[in-house]
Design brief:
The structure holds two protein chains of two kinds. Chain A contains four helices and eleven strands, in the order αβββββαββββββαα. Chain A has a six-stranded mixed sheet, with no helix packed on it. Chain A is globular, with a radius of gyration of 15 Å. Chain B has five domains: 125 residues, HPT domain (Four Helix Bundle (Hemerythrin (Met), subunit A), Up-down Bundle); 203 residues, no CATH class; 58 residues; 179 residues, Heat Shock Protein 90 (2-Layer Sandwich), CATH 3.30.565.10; 157 residues, CheA-289, Domain 4 (OB fold (Dihydrolipoamide Acetyltransferase, E2P)). Chain B is globular. In chain B, strands 14-18-19-17-16-15 form a six-stranded mixed sheet. Chain B is 44% helix and 19% strand. The chains are: A mainly beta, B alpha+beta. Chain A: It is found in: Cytoplasm.
Chain lengths: 166, 761
């Protein structure tokens, strides 16, 4: 699974068609490749790590593994930052590295064809458009397809040593 | 039935590897003027075992060279030839060739035929150089066997005389056998009327050795080895002999049978149950063993005073651990302890080797991981139980206590599997230093200390390369040439010391030379030349650290040994990767010490849990000096800023963890919290936390697996309740504490723009 997902991310003209897990951040809908999702769980107490950006909530124990939790709502400045029994954490497996993301809610899994997907126009947002694979329209709603592996591996997420040091 | 030969090859390769290493070790330890016979014998045995194995597996190249080697060794062993430095060199060269050949067979690496030929020539040359020395006993006159015992001069002290009854031999076997036995001692032979021979052999080897030697040439079932004793003791000896006859000798009625019949019938004695002797020869495995206490006691008493040689022979027999378990009574064990301590240790070591098993590292690692999980689970149970009413649940609590002890023991036992003595690393240096010193024209004496200090196998393997580099550097750059040393009033022979010792929770490995020391001025000049940021005000320790900068070398000439300036940075990097530190101490003209401190193990830590607000942190217990609740009058400040605590005459800086980590906590006054005195890299500080939670062993989990390094945090662990606690990186905390401003309360991170990466190291 990880091998194929990495290959997809690495290819220069990615075919973005495929199954996506959609989730909600504030008023917006986002989609990430279903193959990168390991599991979905509720929000547990995290152990805060000192001197890290606010969107890195800390680490949790996921069956013996120490997994960092990122709150995308803080990172993208979206939604109300509340933690209750409805707060959802999507556990991602990105090439062997396990990361959890906090979102407002998980909606659906959707199969998208290439013709549903539009390119992203140049615009200003809190994430670089290079991390957006495309935009899809589903039932009058716009779905933002995020290249989650590139985003999580990027320097601004500060999740990796190799990127942050250089 | 097909047999998978590869497993036997592996065993042979492993064994040969060990034997070669041991031989090298012994060779290097030889005192050329007065070599220890025991060592020479051991070297000889190593060569002989390799020869036997190589011939069995058809590796004739190795068999050939070991044969030549063995011949030469034998002459020296029998003192027909004096040991010289050339001999040792030749032996070492032969060891290299054998190693090369072994690798050739094992890994299909290239074997240099020229080198093989050279060494063979050298060994042969040396061997023939003194071949004129006669072997007197070989030409002993033929006499009637009955007369032999009394006619022959008694065996020299330390030697035992064995009488070998041999079947009819053809000329070739006769010659081979004589050659082989000649390796053990001096041989004289007599031919009996019916064509059989009886040989007398004066040797310090055991009957087992003789039999195994003979088995190369003839069928041992057809021969009989017995010990010849002094006539006066014949009566006792007869009884004693019964026990010492370890060989699979044919019965007294062999005469009437043909050799073939005997061979079929005996079947190595494994399946025969009718004759007591043969049962014993089956190593006591196949039938209930009937001991001969009388015989043993008689031997010991009878031989004790008048015949030290016989006692020794008996002891030797008893010391064959696998074959003679039946004679190892308390009595003979007592005897053994009379031997010099050194030999005892060696014996113990060799016995330990034979009882070891080879297990894949991944299996051990899996075991360690499982035990790690078990420790977590156990801690979880312990925590649940702590909440129960101790009266009502007394038995449960007791059981849990037992579980805790067992878990801890199990964990220690499992961890010790991975521990290996430093000797594993140190043993490779004598040879390297010797060769290097020879190449550079220097005289170096290598001293090792604390070779038995144990370290995790993973670390042992990773320390080899850095340490090799440091040793090479010390010999090349540290120790001066003999003339220079003399000019400076030092002894011509430089001393290189390798030491390992436990200090707190880490192991400290030091490479010390008594050479020229580091030259501060030259280091600074060189650093400036290389464009490194330096100033005259730098402390010596800082200046010395410059040699770890990439591409830094002050050597005037690049030699093929070192001086290219590659390496020291790699050394530093390797050691840092193992969570270790390198420190250099040097006095110009007197020498340099490079000190490496490594953690003992990588997986489990004894920790003290401390609370800070709602968070729990774990401090490695070995870095904690003490904990205390300060009184207000002990807290001092400097210019109203840096807070310090006055403990037993010392002023220690207070590092407030909540401020360092930007945590919310209600306790900001040290007198209401707890000060944990921590020490790392020779610096002490007082870490101010809210309170102590408890002491427990924790399994270290890497943060980096899914996240990244965080300054001040060395890892994470899972607590009893399943939550994650972070383990403090004490050296980093002390460092951070020094650059932290307490008045503004600004933490290292917050005082900088959020996007800077300074906190990531």
């Amino acid at each position: 699974m990880t091998a194929t997902s990495m290959a997809t991310a690495a290819s220069t003209t990615p075919s973005v068609a495929g199954e996506y897990l959609t989730f909600v951040l504030g008023e917006e809908s986002y989609g990430i490749e279903i193959l990168k999702v390991q599991e979905i769980r509720g929000y547990d107490t995290v152990t805060k790590i000192a001197n890290t950006p606010a969107f890195i909530k800390g680490v949790v124990n996921l069956r013996g593994r120490i997994v960092p939790i990122v709150d995308l709502r803080i990172k993208f400045n979206l939604g109300k930052i509340e933690y209750d029994e409805f707060t959802v954490v999507i556990i991602l497996n990105l090439g062997g590295r396990v990361v959890g993301i906090v979102v407002d809610g998980v909606s659906d899994v959707m199969a998208l064809q290439q013709e549903h997907i539009r390119n992203v126009p140049e615009l200003v947002s809190s994430i670089d458009t290079q991390y957006i694979l495309g935009l899809a329209t589903v039932e009058e709603r716009m779905l933002i397809l995020v290249d989650i592996e590139r985003l999580m591996g990027s320097q601004e997420m500060e999740l990796l040593d190799s990127v942050t040091v250089h | 039935m097909s047999i998978d030969m590869s497993q036997f090859y592996e065993v042979f390769f492993d064994e040969s590897d060990e034997l070669l290493a041991e031989a090298e070790h012994l060779l290097l330890g030889l005192d050329i003027q007065s070599p220890d016979m025991e060592d020479l014998n051991a070297i000889f045995r190593a060569a002989h075992s390799i020869k036997g194995g190589a011939a069995t597996f058809g590796m004739m190249d190795m068999a050939e060279i070991t044969h030549v080697l063995e011949n030469l060794l034998d002459k020296i062993r029998k003192q027909e030839m004096a040991l010289t430095a050339e001999h040792v060199d030749a032996f070492l060269a032969a060891k290299d060739v054998l190693k090369m050949q072994l690798d050739g067979h094992r890994l299909a690496t290239a074997v240099d035929p020229e080198q093989v030929a050279d060494v063979t020539m050298m060994l042969k040359g040396l061997s023939e150089g003194v071949a004129i020395a006669p072997v007197p006993t070989l030409t002993a006159p033929v006499a009637a066997p009955a007369a032999v015992v009394s006619a022959m001069p008694p065996a020299a002290p330390g030697l035992t005389r064995f009488c070998l009854d041999l079947p009819v031999l053809n000329e070739r076997d006769d010659r081979n056998l004589r050659d082989e036995l000649g390796l053990l001692g001096s041989v004289s032979q007599h031919v009996l009327a019916d064509g059989r021979s009886q040989w007398l052999l004066d040797t310090d080897s055991s009957a087992d050795d003789i039999l195994s030697i003979c088995s190369f040439v003839i069928d041992v079932d057809q021969m009989r080895v017995s010990r010849e004793d002094m006539p006066a003791l014949e009566a006792v000896a007869a009884a004693a002999q019964h026990d010492i006859e370890v060989g699979l000798e044919a019965r007294a009625d062999t005469k009437s049978k043909s050799g073939v019949e005997v061979q079929e019938e005996v079947g190595y004695g494994l399946f025969e149950t009718l004759e007591q002797d043969k049962v014993e020869e089956g190593y006591g495995f196949f039938a209930p063993f009937t001991p001969h206490p009388d015989a043993v006691v008689t031997t010991m008493i009878g031989d004790e005073t008048p015949l030290p040689a016989a006692v020794e022979a008996a002891q030797r027999t008893t010391r064959q651990p696998e074959k003679n378990t039946e004679i190892s009574t308390q009595k003979s064990t007592d005897k053994l302890s009379d031997k010099p301590v050194k030999k005892d240790n060696e014996k113990a070591a060799s016995t330990a080797e034979t009882t070891s098993i080879r297990v894949g590292v991944e299996k051990v690692d899996q075991l360690i991981n499982l035990v790690g999980e078990l420790v977590i689970t156990q801690a979880m149970i312990e925590q649940r139980i702590a909440a129960l009413d101790p009266v009502q649940h007394e038995r449960l609590i007791n059981s849990a206590g037992q579980l805790m002890r067992n878990t801890r023991d199990l964990q220690e036992a499992v961890m010790s599997i991975r521990m290996m003595p430093m000797d594993f690393v140190f043993s490779r240096f004598p040879r390297m230093v010797r060769d290097l010193a020879g190449k550079l024209g220097k005289k170096v004496e290598l001293v090792t200390q604390g070779a038995s200090t144990e370290l995790d196998k993973g670390l042992i393997e990773r320390i080899v390369d850095p340490l090799t580099h440091l040793v090479r550097n010390s010999v090349d750059h540290g120790i001066e040439l003999p003339e220079q040393r003399r000019a400076r009033g030092k002894s011509e022979t430089g001393q290189l010391t390798l030491s390992a010792a436990h200090k707190g929770g880490s192991i400290v490995i030091e490479v010390t030379d008594d050479g020229a020391g580091l030259n501060r001025e030259r280091l600074l000049a060189k650093a400036q030349q290389n464009g490194l940021p330096v100033s005259e005000n730098m402390s010596d320790a800082e200046v010395y650290q410059l040699i770890f900068a990439p591409g830094f070398s002050t050597a005037e000439a690049v030699t093929d040994v070192s001086g290219r300036g590659v390496g020291m940075d790699v050394v530093k990097r390797n050691i840092t990767a193992m969570n270790g530190t390198v420190e250099i101490r040097s006095v110009p003209g007197l020498g340099t010490t490079i000190s490496i401190a490594l953690p003992l193990t990588l997986a489990i830590l004894d920790g003290m849990s401390v609370s800070l607000g709602s968070n729990i942190y774990v401090i490695p217990l070995n870095l904690i000096v003490e904990t205390l609740q300060p009184r207000a009058q002990d807290i001092k400040t400097v210019t109203g800023e840096g807070r310090m605590v006055h403990v037993r005459g010392e002023y220690l800086p207070i590092i407030a963890l909540h401020s360092l980590f930007n945590h919310d906590t209600d306790i900001t006054d040290p007198t209401q919290g707890v000060l944990v005195l921590i020490e790392a890299e020779g610096r002490k500080s007082a870490l101010f936390v809210d309170g102590l939670v408890g002491q427990q062993q924790v399994v270290i989990k890497s943060l980096e697996t899914n996240y990244r390094r965080v300054r001040g945090i060395s890892g994470a662990t899972i607590m009893g309740d399943g939550s994650v606690a972070l383990i403090l990186d004490v050296p980093a905390i002390i460092q951070m504490g020094q650059s932290h401003n307490y008045i503004t309360g600004a933490a290292a991170y917050a005082s900088r723009p959020p996007q800077t990466k300074e906190y990531t190291q």
